[in-house]
What does this fold into?
Amino acid sequence: MPLILFASPKGGVGKTTLVANLAGALRRLGRAVLVLDLDPQNALRLHFGVPLQDGGGFMARLVQRPDWRAEQRATAAGIALLPHGALGLRDALEQAVALEREPGLLATPLREMLADPRLLVLADLPPGPSHALAVAAPLASLIVAVLRSEAISAAILGEIESGRFLGSGTMAAILAGRLQFVLNGVDLASSLSRAAAQAVAQHLGPRLLGAISRDEALGEALAQQRLVQELHPASAAAQDLQQIAQTLAALLPAPAEPPSSLAPPPFNPTPATFWGGR
Ligand SMILES: Nc1ncnc2c1ncn2[C@@H]1O[C@H](COP(=O)(O)OP(=O)(O)O)[C@@H](O)[C@H]1O
Ligand SMILES: [Mg+2]
It folds into this structure.
């Protein structure tokens, strides 16, 4: 089943928030979801109630070739979680060198995850280029670039669309064809925010998967280590996320049975939309 990466040139735009809560929204649509934290900040777990002092995780142990199945955490939201795990500076350097030498350390378990026909894998990435991005991007069906509405200008948008933040040369151009966008933090009460959002929507057309309102419900949910759909299901952000989940689900192969079943879904790709409409 598909791998969807969440990336951005800049940090603090809402990637981790989006991965966690979009996973929740997709779960509500009946999808079996695995969330994978590829960001050494190790923050994705905090949305799922993993205690702060619990520093265990898949990526942090990568050089020891852990079994990803054994590293999975079941969450109250019904989503499987692979935390990144806490890494000291020395271990982070060792991980980067190992991944550069042997991309299979990550590519092999990723391929195994994707071989499970029931699983939809959402991966949270650090901002900008990273070894994890270089390994995961060629395997991804879709790369979602998260944009912050107040920080967006036509010049920045062109740069992001080019995919240069995904790497360089021909590979970046290929990956750019799989880019879709989510605009985060839109404030409809602000005429500036509204105008910026409208300009982005007009420019991106169908490559804009959706927009998310600026909404304190997201921060409150994180503070309680829960998903916004559970805590504030009627909030603007929860509704926006549900809409994005529906748009995304329409681009993905549909599961044939309820998620409790082991039956594989039929393969029903829609390449034109799925590959960024290019
Ligand atoms: N739509 C939103 N409305 C309000 N706060 C948001 C929104 N999206 C994200 N945030 C907050 O912004 C901060 C950064 O989000 P985060 O998901 O950690 O970004 P990233 O993973 O890109 O670094 C968090 O405190 C999060 O709660
Ligand atoms: Mg993050």
